[in-house]
Amino acid sequence: MLLTLKIKNYLTIGGAIPLIAWLACTSLANRALAQLTPDTSLGNESSVVTPNVDVKGALADLIEGGAIRDINLFHSFLEFNVLDGGRVYFANPVGIESIFTRVTGNNVSNILGTLGVDGAASLFLLNPNGIVFGNNAQLDIEGSFFSTTANSLVFGDGSEFSAANPNQPPLLKVSTPLGLQYGANSTGAIANSGNLAVPGDLTIAGVNLDLQGQLLAGEDLRLQAQKAVEISDSVTQQFIAAAGGELVIQGNESVDILALNHPDSGLFAGGNLLLRSPNSIAGDAHYWSGGSFRVEKLDGSLGDLESPNDPVIRSFGDVSFNIYVGASLHILAGGSVDIGTAVITGTETGNAGDNFLVEEITLSDGTLVSINGGEKPTLDVRAGVSPEAIGNPGITGFDGLPTEFFADAGFNFLEPPPETNTAATSADITISGIGVSDPD
């Protein structure tokens, strides 16, 4: 099955995912050879791993060699892992803008330490068996990062960089990557519990995705699964997905988001925020969009949203979805709001817990009204709201990242939005039907 994808301005991707939790056991002996084992599929252009090289002021395993084609560099490995506390870097020859790495063996890649590029090139990691980013996983990449469990990358000239069939015709010439090719029985999943951050695009595309860590992209963030996307947090560990540009979450079978256990959890986009799946999306989270917020099906029509708790949607632009079913719902939109039907299922006494919106709002006549989703089921929908009322995300969960991380992308989550003093605009609220239903 061929999927299309978007990375930066020239790649478009599709994917899907439900997940498995596994970490492979690794030995500290023979570190470079045991964790990074090049194959022979590139002939005399095979990858070369040199351990204990000073890279950016600390020791690391440095990957050199590979096959250069124009501005692209290709590597091929039987095994590709990064030990907990370890550092693995790709050398970045002059003129190389993209580094492509495939895993042709039969094992999952465990990224438990730092994976980086000693330069400004973007990095692509391809392993059909699966990829695990552990608790201490982090990226040191100046460009974009793309990880996938597809069988191959497909290029514009029809050639493929395949992990499933590495002995196909050699890379005589390579153009821009156009898509991903998954096998008929692909099962590779991607799990993350680490802190993955890049200043460019961040894309995670697999058969199933199990995302419990933190994901930060200075530009676009895309989480795409051939089957299911599962996102969750805990009382002690927040989940954050943040993009300076567009945030897209797509599950070709399902999307399940449960991220209201930690007060700092949330999904944030400097541009549009899009949830996409053919079935109703479980969207238990707080959302913030500098553009529009939209739930849609794979064909582009409006999709459905459900939540057992109290999702809060803040958007500088429009908010659109078809049917909502949940305990409460809060929407603050700078543009219009378009909902097919809203069914509120919360109990009269409200819902236990601390994950509900509590604030005072000012009506057009100046009256102050208290909103508390924890005391009573609430349908609170506001359109044409000023940016000041919508507020800013104030993300605090990325340890060690500079506050100006998004500056180059023209957006900074940690500063008030530039339209802070803009007056509210006129906007429509369209809800075709409102219902109240006793919870099951």
Keywords summarizing the entry:
single chain, 440 residues, mainly beta, Pectate Lyase C-like, 22-stranded mixed beta sheet, 2 helices, elongated, disordered N terminus, Pectin_lyase_fold/virulence, Filamentous hemagglutinin N-terminal domain-containing protein, Pectin_lyas_fold, FhaB/CdiA-like_TPS
Describe what you observe in this structure.
InterPro entries: FhaB/CdiA-like_TPS, Pectin_lyas_fold, Pectin_lyase_fold/virulence. Residues 43-156 form the Filamentous haemagglutinin FhaB/tRNA nuclease CdiA-like TPS domain. The chain is an all-beta fold and 440 residues long. The protein folds into 2 domains: 1-193, 3 Solenoid (Pectate Lyase C-like), CATH 2.160.20; 233-440, no CATH class. 2% of the residues lie in helices and 45% in strands. The protein has 2 helices and 41 strands. The strands form 5 sheets. The protein has a 22-stranded mixed beta sheet that branches. An 8-stranded parallel beta sheet has the order 19-22-25-28-31-34-36-40, with no helix packed on it. It has a 5-stranded mixed beta sheet with strand order 3-4-7-10-13. β5 (67-69) and β6 form a beta hairpin. The chain is elongated, with a radius of gyration of 23 Å. The chain starts with a strand and ends with a strand. Mean pLDDT is 81; it is low at 1-34, 349-356, 362-367 and 396-424.
The number of helical segments is: 2
- The oligomeric state is single chain
| Count of domain modules | 2
What is the total tally of β strands? 41
Give the structural class: mainly beta
Radius of gyration: 23 Å
**Proportion of residues in helical segments:** under 10%
Q: Assess the beta-strand content as a share of residues.
A: 35-45%
Q: Estimate the mean pLDDT confidence.
A: 81
Low-confidence stretches: 1-34, 349-356, 362-367, 396-424
Shape call: elongated
Major sheet characteristics: 22 strands, mixed
Give the CA-CA distance, first to last residue. 40 Å
